[in-house]
Amino acid sequence: MNIDFLQTPRGKLITFAVLGIVLAILPWVLTGGFENGKSWVRAVDFALLYIMLALGLNIVVGYAGLLDLGYIAFYAVGAYTYALLNSPHLQAMLPYWLHNPPFLLMLLIAAFAAGVFGLLLGTPVLKLRGDYLAIVTLGFGEIIRIFMNNLDRPVNLTNGPQGINNIERVHFLGLDFGRPVEWLGLTFDMVHLYYYLILAFCIVIIFVTLRLQHSRIGRAWVALREDEIAANAMGINIRNVKLLAFAMGASFGGVSGALFASFQGFVSPESFVLMESIMVLCMVVLGGMGHIPGVILGAIIVSITPEILRDVINPLQEGLFGKRVVDPENLRMLIFGLAMISIMLVRPEGLWPSKRRAREFHEHDEEARA
Amino acid sequence: MSTPLLEIQGIHKRFGGLHALNDVGLSINAGEIYGLIGPNGAGKTTLFNVLTGLYQPDEGRFHFDGHDLFRKKPFVVVRSGIARTFQNIRLFANMTALENVMVGQHVRTRSGVIGAIFRHPRARAEEAAIKQRARELLEYVGIARRHDDLARNLSYGDQRRLEIARALATRPKLLALDEPAAGMNPSETEGLKKLMQKIRDDGVTILLIEHDVKLMMGLCDRIAVLDYGKKIAEGRPEQVKCDPRVIEAYLGVAPE
User: N or C: at which end does chain B have fewer Cβ atoms within 10 angstroms?
Assistant: First the structure.
């Protein structure tokens, strides 16, 4: 790839135009080209949600260097916030003006709620680092999930393990995203409508992280990651900057969670297990910590690969052995684990690291050789 | 001379049973280069950490430029005008030299999340000013051509200079340097001395810890000597040099 060309204004324009066209027609190519195209579009929708999550976690882990193993909790908070305000479950108890808030306001509420939980997590762990921080955040993620599981008593808030059903789809710009729309001779199904909706918010989040990265705040986060004592001595208010990282990261998770709840129409604690937190962390690490394109790539690979494997493994097994020998779900995790290990061995900096991070790892090699 | 720029009295700092600073008091006047010497483990760096807010003293008074800084957080201390460097260099290793100095200006700038996301004119102007000033400071300490290199890749002497530039970026009134000449060869030390004099001439007071006695004697206006957490002498370099308690602290019992 010719990087210099991409740097010129014309190169940038062409790249973005091509990318825009590809993204715009992607769902139609998928539905037109594959038998089960709709489930592929669905998978892409989820990939977009994961991109948002990975970018949020990237702020905490990639920029500020705070290892968070319970990130999925914020996704859960966003999803449940949306679910509670947009389903019949609690509406008998909530005041009328809280029912089905306008969509954008709803997203703000979800982001805010998740941000508050980010602060709740951030405050007690201000002095922790590394392994200790990881353990506490892991516990936090589990606490949130267990709360969701058990808050059906004494007051039925979350409906326990059954989860919340009948969540309203998004109503936005006069569209009901739960119903197919005919436009320009094309039928926009729910998966298509949500594709464009989630894509739009994904772009917003990419834009926000890009802007944050090259700002006073972004630099303070990186300084914090590099050397907390020096950052402290340079007059950076460590407490505020850390809490801001937790809250910003969490609010991205909240937005993603709200979109997830509305898209799925159903939330339950099962969607927010520890494995999900680890998956999102894998996306960040695999793609290239702190590098936005890398993180996006990581999110796409980690979320789409299992779908591809699912479609490949079963026919393959049937072709080879005439029957299904291994449950594809298990095999998937095995292959996935092996892939992660080999990537960490061969390219510890991630698949698409920032130039700087690549340099960092590369130098170690040179030192070792010398 | 009117009131001193920095004044501490009766500072105590204990770590468990270790009385690291025992009733230390000193005052530094604006515009001087003030040296702090003492044998290893005398409490110099502890005093530094107290003066820059990294450690909270147990007792005492700490006034700087009209602010009471007793037990204040580091960012408050830096905001009121004290900046420091570290004995073992603590740069942001994987940031470029320019970025290191830009981080130094954090405390003197305001842009928050909103400014970062929307880049309104004020935020834009501030960002440009930060970059401009960072360039100037790198120029000032003499490492402008390395601005795009990662801090970790700079030579040892350049890293020392970069740390000074980063500290100057906070616009300090008092610059506290913890053994800036450690590990430098004589010509590098000479260059550093010139740099410190230039900084002082530009109106920044300097507090200096250093083992290089020759450098200290030629550079400092006044020197304080710490031993076992106590100040045992203070005065002009030539006075301190002849003080029997200082000789005792460094060489053992003074000759009869």
Answer: C
Q: How many CB atoms sit inside 10 A of residue A47's CB?
A: 20
- Same domain, yes or no, for B14 and B137? no
**B78:A223 CB<8 A:** no
Contact A291, A353 (CB under 8 A): yes
| Residue from A314, A257, A261, A259 nearest A280 by CA | A257
Alpha-carbon distances, residue A25 vs A12, A98, B83, B251 (angstroms): 20, 37, 56, 82
Check A248 against B91: CB less than 8 A apart.
Answer: no
pLDDT at A88 over 90: no
Domain harbouring B223, CATH code: 3.40.50.300
Do residue B68 and residue B109 come from a single domain?
Answer: no
Domain of B122, in residue numbers: 93-155
A334-350, pLDDT tens digit by residue?
A: 877 888 888 888 888 88
Q: Would you call A215 an interface residue with chain B, using a CB distance cutoff of 8 Å?
A: yes
Residue pLDDT, tens place only, A19-66: 999 888 888 888 887 777 888 899 999 999 999 999 999 999 999 999
Q: What angle do CA B189, B192, B193 make, to 5 degrees?
A: 90
**Residue B256: pLDDT band with limits 50, 70, 90:** low
How far does A57 lie from chain B, in Å, by closest CA?
Answer: 17
Residue B14 is assigned to a structural domain of this protein: yes
* A126–B contact, CB cutoff 8 A: no
Closest residue to B107, CB basis, from A215, A235, A360:
A235
